[in-house]
Amino acid sequence: MSLLEITDLSVGFDTEDGLVQAVRDISLTLDEGEILALCGESGCGKSVTAMSVPRLLPPDTTRLSGSVKLDGRELTTLPEAEMRQVRGKSVSVVFQEPMTSLNPSFTVGYQIAEVLRRHEKLSRRDADRRATELLELVGIPAAARRMKEYPHQLSGGMRQRVMIAIAVACQPRVLIADEPTTALDVTIQAGVLDVFRDLRDRLGTAIILITHDLGVVADIADRAVVMYAGRAVEQATVAELFAAPRHPYTLGLMNALPSAAVDGRLAEIPGMVPSPLSDPDECAFHDRCPRVQTDCRMSRPPLVRQGEEHLAACFHPGGQS
Amino acid sequence: MLWFILRRCGSAVIVLFMGSVLIFLGIRALPGDPATVMAGDEASPAVVAAIRQEFGLDKPLPAQYLDYVTQTLTGNFGRSTQDQLPVIDIIAQRLPVTLELSALAMLVAIVIGVGAGIVAAVRRGRTADYVATGFGLAGLSVPHFWLGLLGILLFAVTWRVLPASGYVPFSEDPAQNLQRMILPSLVLGAGFAAILMRQTRSAMLGALSADYVRTARSKGLSETKVVGAHALRNSLTTVVTVLGLQLGALISGAVVTEQIFVIPGFGKLTVDAVLTRNYPVIQAVVLVTVAGYVLVNLLVDVAYAFLNPRIRLSGARHD
């Protein structure tokens, strides 16, 4: 049994324009100590998929179906009070924006100690001591002094490390990192990724890494799920994915990497993402696909096995290895 | 922080000085003459002239101002032209009444306004929000005097649960005092509560949609902690600003409210003093009001620094 099992998860939001279906029939698993990358462009549903696990989506407007199981325990139907025991303790989150995700009115130390006092029932003094250790763990120098500082006194990279310290404070089973390096300088990115790797190695934390940056995926992830228009279109180990991408969208993403640029120009994927309001029975990528044929417009390709530990949703997969 | 407060006190002195000049000239620009009012309708010009001389009103304006300032600085506010009592005694008698009324009204406003604002923001788009916003609009639109009369009519005349008017000092009978203060402080606090409600609601709405609130939820904190600590703390700056800005409105509201409920406070004293051209009383009353205003603004600034660490630190760096 995997640590985390997501089965047939669909998530929609009630809006003034009607139901917007952000995620459709996603199934994935996460093992202990594994780093799984969820990748795809903005709006493909990768964050919504991940935020469904700790149920951090707006409860009034979210329409969710399917199953999310942590250690065999169903989370989607868990009462809110029990869910609060899970959040921050078993499942924690590092958010994208380090600038705004910390509360400007509380000291860094307070914000780390708070989660320890909530879940580990530590005294104020013990929580503070542990928080200082956590700051050291994530690589912040002069941790004792930083404890008393406010978020605005810290640089972006430092704030992201504080976010990570909060997220790992209670040694979670699953850590969700939502674009953790996007807002950071490249030089700082590598350091933050090292912190994640270190946590996985030391504590066995499983990590879901949400990113649109395939460079980050190649650097740190064990396995990757590529999403497009709310669906998983390809799933494979990272080595397998980069060696032999099957789905034309994955290939397009790789060609759009600066390192793959020809004559100094980035290769973009032509066309637009389809509207999430409608869902015709066809391949969502057919408008933009270089390998499109008649059958792609007739029905939706299912996610099928293309090799050992390699799934892709395409009638005409390429790159046979 | 200390330096910040000292600097604030320095500017307060300047504000007080300018206030004293303005009020001194302002009341003398009004038509009417205290000596004529004091002497009565039938008095001969000789009597009026004698009274003028007694109160120094025959001297040129700069000389009168100099007298006034030197007297004030030595703690002597002069005597009322109306009943010859020392102004300082009159103020000592009236000021606590208004302070009590204002404090109670402010308490009413904070409890109702901030409370309803938080509820409205948390229950946004639901019945509680519409009810709070509706009452807020009503509270803003209804004038004090009408609300006061309505309150007297309902609570004192129809239901007979509260006295209609009058004042009993707190030191004489606390229960009676509070009972008589309920209606006036509700009337005076209502409009204030409405403003606070709207400001708190919008500040809380902003805070509740902030990323750090999502972070707080992701820690597994209770909704009480998320709303009451993380969101509210960041909304309080707005609330404190409104409190400071509305103090002027509270004072002018007290004038009307004290008239309706026949409360012998500062507001009633001011109105009576203006009507009888009682220069020393008007001057003293306005000066005390200005001082109160300056003091509250100083407190607001200090509260800011306390609530918002960014203000505190940037202030410290510049000092």
Automatic annotation (TrEMBL), chain A:
Family annotation (Gene3D superfamilies): P-loop containing nucleotide triphosphate hydrolases
SMART domains the UniProt entry points to: AAA (SM00382)
CDD domains: ABC_NikE_OppD_transporters
Keywords carried by this UniProt record: ATP-binding, Cell membrane, Membrane, Nucleotide-binding, Transport
Organism whose genome encodes this protein: Nonomuraea maritima
Lineage top rank: taxon: Bacteria
PROSITE patterns: ABC_TRANSPORTER_1 (PS00211), ABC_TRANSPORTER_2 (PS50893)
Primary site of residence: membrane
Any one of the GO CC terms: plasma membrane
Protein's recorded name: Peptide/nickel transport system ATP-binding protein
Classification lineage: Bacteria, Bacillati, Actinomycetota, Actinomycetes, Streptosporangiales
GO molecular function, one term: ATP binding
Protein family membership: Belongs to the ABC transporter superfamily.
Subcellular location: Cell membrane
Keyword ATP-binding: yes
Ranges that cross the membrane: none
Membrane topology: Peripheral membrane protein
GO biological process, one term: peptide transport
Domain ABC transporter: 4-254
From TrEMBL, chain B:
Location relative to the cell: Cell membrane
Keyword annotations: Cell membrane, Membrane, Transmembrane, Transmembrane helix, Transport
Gene Ontology CC, one term: plasma membrane
Matches recorded under CDD domains: TM_PBP2 (cd06261)
GO molecular function: dipeptide transmembrane transporter activity
Membrane keyword on record: yes
Domain ABC transmembrane type-1 intervals: 95-300
Family in the record: Belongs to the binding-protein-dependent transport system permease family.
Full protein name: Peptide/nickel transport system permease protein
Record organism: Nonomuraea maritima
